[in-house]
Amino acid sequence: MALREVLLVALATLLLRHARSQTSNGEQVVSRDGEDCLSQYAAPATVLAVPEEVVLVLGNSGSGKSALAKHLSRHDGDMKAVRENGEFFIEGDGIGGSIASVTSVPELFHDNETATNYFDCPGFEDTRGPCSEVTTTYYMKDIARHARRVKVLLLAPHFAVRKGQDRSDFLTMLRHAARVLKDPAKLQQSLALVVTKVEAPVVKRNNYDGYGRVSSDLVKAPDSDVRSGVEAFLSREVRPFLAAMAEDSSVQQEERTELRNAVKIVDILLLGGVETRRHGRVSRIGLFHAPDEVGALGDIEIMRNGRAELLELVQGLGYADVQQGDFGFSVSARTKVFALRRVQQLNEDVVAALGVLGQAAKNQSASAYDPSDIRASQERYAELEKKAADVARHLKNSTDVKEFCLRVAVPEDSSVQLADKCAILDVLQVVSEQPVVDHAVLATTWAAPMDSVTEYLKEKKEWHSFLLSLYQRFNSYPVQLQRRSSSTPFPSSSFVELPEFAAEAEALAAFAATGQNLSDVAAVVSTASRGPKTRCVGDLPSGGHAVVEGETVLLSEAVAAARNSCAGPLQLLEVYALNTVFVDDTVRLPSVPLVVAAPRWETLGSPTINLDGEDGEPLGSAPAANCSGERGHDGRPGNPGGPGGVLLAVGMDFAGNKVRVSAKGGAGGVGEEGGAGSGGGGDGGAGGL
C-alpha cells in the first residue's frame, strides 16, 4: 500500500474518530479559514515549568479564567474595573473583554501567601482556530504529564447557570471537563465550581416602622441565594438531562461514557461543602463577583471580600493524587481534520528532508576518500558504514515520532529543517492520543534514506577492501621483483585482463560501476609499478649521502641504486618505504650508517645486513740499511680497521625470517716487516733481520 494510503487509512481511523459528515464540514472550515495555519504552523516554542502541586483553572473561552487566576494569586495590580454601556468589566494584561480567547499558553501564577500555584489554562471552545487549539491541547497534555497533585476549579459565567437561560454554554463546558477529567472519582475532595461575572439579582425589601407604616427599597440578593439558585439549576435541570442522555441507546458508546463522567462531576459539585478553617463547612460553589464600582480591583470591597471567600474554598479542597492517564484532552472535529492534513503534508516534507539528509551524508562521506592512502580510506568507509547502519537500526526500532527524530543526526552543513518538522509531528501525536505515523512507516519509508546511505558506504568499504587486497598483491615480493627486472612499468590495461582480479571485482558488483573505480585501479597499478626514487644529498663534506624512497623497496635494490647514483663511497644511506621494505639479500655497507623505515618489514631467506668496518690495509717491508754494518729500519705497526656502521630500523609489522645484523669494527692490518741490515767489514757480517 502506498505511503499516502497508509496515512489516510491509519490516521482516519485513529486520529479522526468522527462521522463522515463532520469531516466534510471540518474540511470546509479548514479550507476556508485554516490554509495559512495549515502551511505556517510551527511547534510551540515555550517550555512549561510545571510544579507537582497545581490548581487547574478550567472553563470555556471568555469565562474569566485569567482574571480569576490573577486575582486569587494576588497578581492583580494591573487589573481595574471599568464601566461601559452601563455594565462593569475587568481590564488588565492578558484579560479579554469578550468571548474571544486570550490565553494560548497556560500561565502559572504563584501565590506567595498561601504557597499555591494556579495554572490559567487555555479555554475550551477556543475561538481562534485549529492552530491555537492544537497548541493549547499540547500544553495541557504537558501539564498532565508532569503534575502529580491537583485541585480543579471549573468556571462558568453566571448567565450560564441560571434557570430560564440557555444552558448550552454550561453543558459544553461540562462535556469538555468530562473528557479532561477521565476519573472524576479521584477528584471528589478536590473539585469546585466558580461562578464568574456574578451580578446578584436585586430584590425588593419592605421596612416597617414602629407605627405600622411600610417602606421599601431595592437590595442585592445575598450570596447564599445565588448559590442556592445554582445548585437548583444543577440538580433539577442539568443532571437529569445528562443522566437521560447517558442512558440513551441511540447515543454512541464513547459519548455515553463522556456523559456519565459529566454526571459524576455534577454529583461532586452537589455534595456537601468543604471544611474551612474560618467558616466551617462551605459550599463547593464559589462566586467571583463582577465589580460594582470603577477603580483598582484591590480597592473594591466586593472584590476583596469575594477573594477571601474563594481562597477559603481553594484551601479547603484537598489535593488529589493523579497520573498522566487520569487526564484526556480532546480537540474539535475541525482541528482533527487540520491535524490529518498537516500530518500528510509533514510526512511528505519529512520524506523529502530525509532524502536530502541521505544525500548530504553521502556527500560528506566523500571526504573519507584519500587516493594516496587506500588503507586509511577503507578504514574510514568501514567506520562510516557502521555508524550509518547503527543509525538506521535505531531509527527502525523507534517507537514513535519523537524517538525517531531524536535519533536522526543531521549534518551541521545541511540546510534540512528536519528537527522543526519532527517537533510539529510530536505535537500532533501528543494531541491525537494515537500514533500519527505508523511504525511500519518509520521502519521503511522514513528509514529508507539511511538504509541507502548504509548500502552506499558498504559498497565503498568493500570496493576499498578489494583495492587494498589488490594493492597488497602488487606490492608482494614476486611482483616487485618482476617490476625490478622489467624495463617498463606495468600497463594498467594489463590488470583488467587478469582473470583472478576481474572475477573478484565482478563478485563485488563494483568493478565497472563507475569511471572512478577504473581510475582507482589504474592508480593502484601505477603506484605499484613505480620503483623507488634515489637522490643524493650534498650535505656531507665527502659526499655519498643517499636517500631512497618508494612505495615498496627491496633493500638490495636500494643499496645498488645508492651506489650508482652517488659519486664516491657511501657515507650515509636512508631508505624509506610507504608500504614494505623487503630484506631480500645480504648487503654489505662497510662503516655506513644505515636508516631503514617502513610500516612493514619482510625478510626473505637468511640475509645479513653487514655494516662491519673494513680490515686495516696491510703494509709491505721497512727500508733496508744503506751503510755497512747498519741495522735495517724497524717495521711499522699495522693500520687500524674501519669502524662498524650504525643501523636505525623503524617498523610496525615484521614478517618472514630473522635478519642478521653485523656492525663490528674491522680487524687491524698486518704490520710492516723490518728492513734488511747491511754487511760488516773483514770476513763480512751477517745481514740484519
TrEMBL record:
It comes from the Eukaryota. The gene is LOC117644992. The lineage of its organism: Eukaryota, Metazoa, Ecdysozoa, Arthropoda, Hexapoda. Residues 1-21 form the signal peptide. InterPro entries: P-loop_NTPase. Keywords: Signal. This is Uncharacterized protein LOC117644992. Residues 607-645, 665-689 are annotated as: Disordered. SUPFAM superfamilies: P-loop containing nucleoside triphosphate hydrolases.
